[in-house]
Amino acid sequence: MTSGVTIPALVAGRLLVSLLPLPDALQHDHQLSSPLTSYSRLQEGIYLFKNGIDPYSGGVFRHSPLFLSLFSTLLPTSRVTSSILWTLCDAVGALALIRIWRARQRVSSSSRDGLIGAVYLLNPYLFLPTLALSTSTFENTLTLLSIMFASEGQISASLLTLAFLIQLSLPSLLLVVPLFMLLVGDPVSRLASPAPISSDLRKTIPMLFEFMVYSIVLVLASTLVSGSWAWIPNTWGLGLTLPDLTPNPGLWWYFFTEMFDHFRPFFLVVFSVHLIIYVFPICIKFQHDPLFAAFILLGILATFKPYPTLSDPGLFISMIALFPEIYPYLRHPIVTTLLHLHASLLLPLFHHLWLTQGTGNANFFYAITLVFGVSNGAALIDCIYAGLRIAIGKGDGFEVVQE
Amino acid sequence: MLAGWRCGACFTLAIWATLGLAAVPRERFQESLIIRPLHDGKVSSQFSFLTSVQDATPRNPETLGLEDDSQHYTVFPLALGQILREYAITEMHLTLNAGKWNYDQWGYPNEAGVGTGAELWAWMGDGGLATVDQRWQGLRNALAGLFCASLGSLDEQRTTSPVLTFAPEGLLPNWTRPHQLRHASLPSEHVCTENLTPFLKLLPCKSQSGIASLLNPHQLFDADWHGMGVHVWLDPIEGVKVRLTFQSVFDPVRNSLGGRRDWSFTSIFGRTIEKHCPVAQTSSIQIELPDDKSYTLSPEPTRVDVNIALFDLVNRTEPFEAAMQWLGEATFEYPLNAGDLSHMPLSVRRTLRGSSQARGQLSVVLTNNWPTEMHVIYLETMPWLLQFYLHTLRIYCNGEPCDHLISNISYTPPVPHARPTMFQSVLTVPPKTTIYLTIDVSKSFLRYTEHPPDAQRGWDLPPAVLVPLRVRENQTIDQGTRYPRIYTPILLVDLATPDFSMPYNVIILSCTLITLIFGSVFNLLTRKFVVVQLDGPTKDKNIN
């Protein structure tokens, strides 16, 4: 069993790297942490909270009150302990990914475990945000845990982690539908043999009720911790109103920097609704394989969510490892990889040229975020294509086209 | 019966007394000019025009819905009086300054308000129909109209309430609800002729006679530093007072051919006082005499008090001009030392470090010049485009961390596009020691419509305000002896700019990418996959 050696070795290696002095320089990088996930803003919020100033009365602290309560009581906030905590969180995420894989294959262990763990632990899009102590690491781990519990049929655990995840990041609401389908169905791959959903969807009603209870309890707990409802517009509302236009690798920030004031509310609604549009078509099309639908929706989130960091596409890319059956049907994997390589090398460079060096302007960074969007979109479209194309299979003498 | 008659007489008398006072408010107008030759060859001048209305009280905001008393003034500026009554202002201070007041060289100014740009603060009673914020908005718009200044920009994005730093100078009447403070500053506002003209119109003699005839815009706005101020407050004995001031720092060395520091009214103001203002009850000129005794002063002063020469203009009929000369000095030698720092309790330097447009570090260096421990109220008000990270606040003294030197922190975090930051605290500076205060800041990214037309120039940040305090043992901060406020120079912050020519391009490019992905995804999801036989008849195999 390779994963028994690989994973601890990788985790140990990452712990070593995270304890190097390097992370301080990364902490303020806009591509690794957004205003919603930045570590220095988290520290600021904890400082204000401990000194009796409501952190939600201003615009600096955007994290969930759950982080506030955890970090101001239980969890340590020193540099070293934080690094260890974040790396362990990634390790949990990697283990969750491995267990999703095992559940999908219906095996208790496989030769691919080590590889899947490595794909998660060594993915630079996930590795660097963890070094920067971005709280997106927690979001990714909760996403994976929620999918893992759903794949293993542990309904309450899955719903609870999902409720936690939505507390931290509202756009994750997109995952509710595929996760419910996963809870009533199973994670086994049926991409090659599509069939209408056979599970009884009425079973989701008590689950929905349970999920609502968890969410309401967490909302009330958050309100209790922060002392008022002010946290809702400051955390959840941020993605809907976009008051903070800090650059990130996503598509929203420059669009709304350059937006005419009288069109801003309209486009904010369009961009928010646009995210929701994908949920049902994808869940209907991939009703035979809800895990794949969840994976595709994570890709949609990584491309289109309001404050993405590199860790969002990172999760999507690492999850590709769960679906080896689609690899032969990918149309242009080399092009997509090269696009990603191109974008990820130029993103930090153009960011530096614009904001630090002063030799480039905002268009440099905007252009490369567009390329990054193209590469995420290309990966997403290719995965959807391969997930559908696999149903026909390969053979000589025929070609598959769309009507 | 007798008692009733007496009562009636008292009542009648009381009515007569009230009417008499109301009909003839005793107004006083006093003017003065203080001239100080400075250590570095410059000459500071301060014009002060004080009008007081005896027994007048500020309007209680509870009466805002009712008909106001009619306003009859003889020398009190009516335009200002109407604004004060309309918005029920108890105390108000407006200053418009240009340049950097060099405390280390020039010492304290005669008027404390020397922050660069516009600064307005007012104490207002609460209650009544209009809220404090509505009246504050009305006040700044009215003053903007009165003084032709962009005070309308002192909006809620700049308004704070730093009560510890800006304590009232006069008395606050004891009304049912407590008074509130509003303070705002606009460092990028400049003062010029268009502000001086309405200022002169508020004076009873305009610039026709008296000391005000020296206010010559050509000379004043050529000065190294110049600023005007309007101060209204309630004196517990003398009633409502208005003080209009104009300060300037001239450089006679720069303007003389031989590099001499001699000055006269003609050389610095370009005018002399032809006749005195008849309504002025006092009209005095005070000239501070330098420590080196090599000067000659003409004409002979009316009186000399220690080192101040006094001239009284009220009974003078002939034109007046004062002049000071250093006859034994061919050219002025600039002093090489910084001068005696002990006349200032504190020296301050404030800088914004870091070359990145995303973040930086604010650094304040405070030196206590005196051999006693000093408490200092330290106030930072920042527009929301600069965000403080309070957890990175560090203080160093003698090369070691001294975080215990800061106390009484009150902090209002900024709200993007809406509210500024206010950070107020008390620093304890040990005797003859320099402390270094640093705090990390992040710079915001603005919408393209929020940038000023000259976006690449950067944004002016308001000055920090420091109030040195002498606090004895068993005294609280509020009870300490206050020294006048000290303003730091303003800062310029370079914010990242978007490409202003790009809005259409960005909308088009971003939307294209989104529709491209959206279209491709739905293309895949909705259209059927069909199998096309490459040889032989076509056989469709549909999925889903």
UniProtKB/TrEMBL annotation, chain A:
UniProt GO BP: attachment of GPI anchor to protein; GPI anchor biosynthetic process
Residues making up the signal peptide according to the UniProt record: 1-27
Entries under PANTHER family matching the protein: GPI TRANSAMIDASE COMPONENT PIG-U (PTHR13121), PHOSPHATIDYLINOSITOL GLYCAN ANCHOR BIOSYNTHESIS CLASS U PROTEIN (PTHR13121:SF0)
Name of the molecule in the record: PIG-U-domain-containing protein
Membrane topology reported for the UniProt record: Multi-pass membrane protein
Family of this protein: Belongs to the PIGU family.
Record's GO cellular component terms: GPI-anchor transamidase complex
Keyword Zinc recorded: no
Superkingdom classification of source: Eukaryota
Alphabetical keyword list: Endoplasmic reticulum, GPI-anchor biosynthesis, Membrane, Signal, Transmembrane, Transmembrane helix
Bilayer-crossing regions: 84-102, 114-135, 155-184, 211-232, 263-284, 291-307, 337-354, 366-388
Species the sequence originates in: Piloderma croceum (strain F 1598)
Pathway: Glycolipid biosynthesis; glycosylphosphatidylinositol-anchor biosynthesis
Compartments, record wording: Endoplasmic reticulum membrane
UniProtKB/TrEMBL annotation, chain B:
Biological process annotations from GO: attachment of GPI anchor to protein
Keywords: Membrane, Signal, Transmembrane, Transmembrane helix
Region forming the signal peptide: 1-22
Record-linked Pfam families: Gpi16
Keyword Cell cycle on entry: no
Membrane spanning stretches: 504-525
Name used for this protein in its record: GPI transamidase component PIG-T
Higher taxonomy: Eukaryota, Fungi, Dikarya, Basidiomycota, Agaricomycotina
